[in-house]
């Protein structure tokens, strides 16, 4: 066996085999401010991906209303005999409240809870069918203001980026002109770097020119811009339909690369980078959550171990002995005092008897004197 045949050079293939045996579960989450088209995007992704989509009408009807709770939609994809169980988690958008923590905290908790649940399931003796909703990619929707990221975006993105593969998305790409979009993108990239926000970056494989070029082009397009469309496709020529949004001046097309990055994003998620997203969730995000949890559990047990330290045991014994002696001494003092009282009572009783006897004597004498007088 040569050096080339072992280790890192063959790793991608070995890793692929591990996952492909049972197929894969891929969980995608959407998050961000309210009304940015998250639910619409989920519908568009389903419509454009699945040949027999899930109940679209019901989904679309739900989609046009603001999302009020975390919703999971499941589907199954098959790609070259490789089965993918797809879960999409739609979340309620954050409002313009002074304190938005209540709206984004449940999303952060959801991600942590999935890691936690996986840890618990792994500790069970039966390691069979595991329920796994760990988030492999979180699309964070940014309002297309043309300015920059808001403080709220920065705060939430920081929290999400340390927990899962965070992919920033510019919503409603049809509302910005090409030039504005490019400037907006580069400003967002600057803020992400300056604020140290961790985002998912497609890995560049140095030994494969084609895939490294593809990764570079993806990185250059980030943050991806998207357009979401309603249920009905638009007829652009007799019998030819496209997904998009119709305007008096024309159509903003979802799958046109000159209009937005929907196709790039879909291919990254469901084809080129799905495996990397799954593996990095396991190897990076899940493992760091596990380590953090185990460390804090250990610190807890260290604290309780201190109580069983022999040194503390000795101190405890000495204290107990001291108290027992103190109590004994007090008891003795009390007994002595009780004894003194009893002796004193005896003495007083005796005195009393003597006085009474004297009285009796004197009374006798008085009686006798009186009788003598008579
Ligand atoms: N111009 C434009 N409008 C869009 C786009 N995507 C969605 N919308 C519209 O934006 C509105 C809100 O869409 P939703 O999908 O409900 O937004 P959401 O982010 O799920 O909102 P919450 O559930 O409240 O967080 C709807 O009227 C959509 O038709 C888009 O790409 N461009
Ligand atoms: Mg919604």
Keywords summarizing the entry:
374 residues; alpha/beta; Rossmann fold; 6-stranded mixed β-sheet; two-stranded antiparallel sheet; 10 helices; 10 strands; binds guanosine-5'-triphosphate; binds magnesium ion
Architecture overview:
It is a single chain. This protein has 374 residues and is α/β, with parallel strands linked by helices. It folds into 2 domains: 3-301, P-loop containing nucleotide triphosphate hydrolases (Rossmann fold, 3-Layer(aba) Sandwich), CATH 3.40.50.300; 310-374. It contains 10 helices and 10 strands. A 6-stranded mixed β-sheet has the order 2-3-1-4-5-6. β4 (137-142), α5 and β5 form a beta-alpha-beta unit. α2 (38-49) runs antiparallel to α3 (56-64) and α8 (262-272) packs across α9. 25% of the residues are buried. The model is unreliable at 1-18 and 303-308 (pLDDT under 50). The structure holds guanosine-5'-triphosphate and magnesium ion. Guanosine-5'-triphosphate binds next to α2 and α3.
